[in-house]
Amino acid sequence: MRAKKIIAAGIMAAMCAGLMTGCSSNKSQFNKYSKCAVVDKAAYTDIEYVPASREVTDDDVQSSIDSFCNDNSETSEDKTSAIKDGDKVNVDYVETISGTEKDSKTGYSLTIGNNTLGDGSDDQLIGSKAGDVKEITVTYPDDYSDTTVAGLTATYKVTVNYISVTTVPEYTDALVKKATDGEYTTTDAYTKHLREDLQSDKNKDADDEDKASVLKAVEEKVTFDKYPEEEIKTYIQTTVNNAKQNAENYGIDVSTYLTYFYGASDEAAFLDKLHTSVENVMKEKIVVSCIALDNNLLADDADVKAYRAKVVEDNNLENDSDVDKYYTEDDLVFYATEENVLDFLMKRAVETEDTEASEDTEEAATSESGSEDTTEGTTEGTTES
What we know:
It is a single chain. By secondary structure, the protein is an alpha+beta fold. 51% of the residues lie in helices and 14% in strands. The protein has helices spanning 11-20, 27-34, 58-71, 173-179, 187-220, 229-250, 254-262, 267-294, 301-314, 329-348, 355-384, and strands at residues 47-49, 74-78, 88-97, 100-111, 133-139, 153-167, 349-351. The longest helix has 34 residues, at 187-220. The chain is extended and about 75 Å long.
């Protein structure tokens, strides 16, 4: 499994990542987790898994080319056209409520259609041009998160500065040479570079996915006698407290916060989701601990050093000391040990085909063959007649 990303892939991943940070990962801690289950060698012998795809498609390459062109877009200021839906507009504004100034911004960017200033605000700006000063009104809903303005009507004095126009360049040799400071001079060379980068990333992602699949397969063969309930309880309570504090900081109620950031309908649903996620992480820690102890796979100093280097590379950190901003030494020992365990498991794993995909392919081939037979039969019948 690749080094844990500092920027989590998702909210739940970020929540569960906390379970492995800040916890001691010395031998006594591995012993603690290993007491929660018995992992027989049979559970990790000849583990079958369907390997992840490593194919880089032409669409993948084209997407990278499009991103490259977008990254090299040029922006200009249109001060003559009238504002229309979808335009990105630069404005200054002053917001007042009941004659009292509440907010003001200069050089503020908004996209027409998003109603950034409030429901119905953008319709009142459509048709305006640079230099126009518009007075628009917005009524905050009664259930607005900021209770101090809920139900009130705000007046915005908006000065239109310009429409921001983005021009995406064509993918040409000249663009490639300029954007790469001459490192690449043709689109062919740069396209090859993009494909190689994509393949490298695809291979790493596939490695991660394969290792995760194998570890999951082992977990499914294990009966977990117990979990470190106090650790689970403490973590869940801490996460809930943090969510409540964050909701307060945002000026919104907890339910709204949990729905927006975690996709949970209420606190009860959030707790269910969180508890399941926490247990899944605990299963991983327990299995890793058991296998590491049984097979002498606990990380040594060289393993930890190698893992630190991987963290630096995978997260584009400037130097090794930056790792300590995100991980404790105990965290690194655990993750380095997990790498040892996963490498150990992959050597004993057996690749197998995705039976469902194979069946679909066979059905498609049979169907196509049947169509050809029917066509040939029809043709022959027509010829005979």
